[in-house]
Amino acid sequence: MERYAFRLNGFLVLLVLLVLAAVAAIGSPQVLGIGWIVLFALAASGFTVVNPNEAKVVQFFGRYIGTVEDAGLQWVLPFTNKTTITLRVRNFETAKLKVNDADGNPVEIAAVVVYKVDDAAKAKFSVDDYEDYVEIQSEAAVRHLATTHPYDSHEAGRTSLRDGTEVAAELTAELRERTELAGIEVLEARITHLAYAPEIAQAMLVRQQAAQVVAARTRIVEGAVGMVQLALDRLAAEQVVELDEERKAQMVSNLLVVLCGDRAIQPVVNTGSLYA
């Protein structure tokens, strides 16, 4: 949609006008004076100043005739309306939204969005206010993201909201699709706030602690079993002692108690026989 408008260097046009004014003053001031005033008034309406990282959307009596992005003093067609659109990189943070995640748990979530205008004409004509459009679409995308992923995944291969890199890439891609209509390029979108809603935060904390305890105990048991197996294999390989099945079972029981217990073990010296 965007196209470049006809333009001339503003300083060059100004120099030409000054030369014409000098000629008018030397020639016939009375005759050319009125014509010079009219010419200058017409030409002056075409001057516009374009700042760095800005664009001027030029309209001639409502018709879009092009965009000027070259910084400096520029001259376009007279009697045109020139709207300034910033091309600078902008960012904003969404409000903390309360939404149910994929598991139905209420969570609070917020994100920061970094974007810039890529097509000034679309930003001007496709939507009423591209800034409000980006903010509303960002909140909608964050809500959709939260409803399609759980806060914390307990299954392998399932993406959760806590997986920062994957979630950020998915949110950025969705926002790019939503804002392309308005000529916006989303550079990055990331989750900045993620927490369970206050009414379930304590219960979920207990659940997370229990899950961590179970995971830790599982690792301890796995390690203990491996150490017991290693001890039995070394004893058998080096023929330190001959153990029957009952003695092996007793040894395994004692080692597991020592390795898996969460308290200090008080050693007991057995001077008798296992079969006594």
Tell me what you see in this structure.
With 276 residues, the chain is α+β, with helices and mostly antiparallel strands. The protein contains seven helices and ten strands. Strands 7, 8, 9 and 10 form a four-stranded antiparallel beta sheet that branches. Strands 1-5-2 form a three-stranded antiparallel beta sheet. β3 and β4 form a beta hairpin. The relative contact order is 0.09. The model has no long low-confidence stretch (mean pLDDT 82).
Compressed to H and E, one letter per element, the order equals EHHEEEEEEEEHHHEHH
From the spread of the alpha carbons, the general shape counts as rod-shaped
Terminal CA distance reads 96 Å
Helix content: 40-55%
> How would you classify the helix and strand content by structural class?
alpha+beta
Query: What oligomeric assembly is this protein in?
Result: single chain
The amount of beta strand, in percent, is 15-25%
Radius of gyration: 38 Å
The overall average pLDDT, rounded, is 82
Largest sheet: 4 strands, antiparallel
Q: Strand tally, please? A: 10
- Supply the number of helical segments: 7
**Unreliable spans:** none
